[in-house]
Specification:
Elements: H1 2-19, H2 23-35, H3 39-82, H4 86-90, H5 100-116, H6 125-143, H7 147-179, H8 184-238, H9 240-245, H10 248-253
Helix pairs in contact: 1-2, 1-8, 3-7, 3-8, 5-6, 5-8, 6-8, 7-8
Amino acid sequence: MIFTAALALFLQTDGGAGSGAAPSQGFGALAEMMSNMGPVAIFVLAVLLLASFYSWTVILGKMSTFRKATAQSKKFVRAFRKATRLQEIAALTGDYSASPLAQVFEDVYETYKRQTGGSGPPKNLTPLERTAQTAASTAITALERRMTWLATIGATAPFVGLFGTVMGVVDAFHGLGTAGAATLRAVAPGISEALITTAAGLFVAVPAVVAYNQFSARIRIFASATDDFCRELLNSLEEMPQRTQTPPREQAEMPLEAERSLYK
């Protein structure tokens, strides 16, 4: 782990500056400290190790999910704006399953088919608006899944490490009282436990907090883009009666809407 390597480097530098000790002695001293740890410190490190493993699993999974969602959303919105029939877009939604925009369109299209049978202008836009809002909320909630674990780990890991710190200090004072003299040998085991558990808590918490903040910003962007797409989709459905009354020649001359910066 990174914090153990850093502590070993510190020990190596401190010992090698005066006596020219070999690098292996620093790591040997660290290994000796780890082997002399009490059960409380070992339990704290085990909890932090599990928390670190789970947080990195969530982080890597979210990175992959957001990358796919961004790429597929860009492709889907281009296909949506190029298509001339809703049936054409509905046939492509399976290829963009990771995109929240495709999920919204699929739910709205199902409601539209129940109203019209799959063709013609919608009879009532209110159910379509409600379906779009529900689908957008569901898609964003899916992106937020397991985010609370990152927040929890980032908030609690330093306190778990602090618990190990306190117990290490208690062990140091206990060793001092047992020895009956203020010597470094009496307090060194407890102090080493305190330092290692403190560093371990920070090592687990910092990546979780950074990832949570970055992912929260990405989710806000997805939510904004999904809301914009809902309005664009509903506007397209609302304009269907006007498009059916517009002559084909005029429809061909109508300018295409420019792509929005959110999807670029």
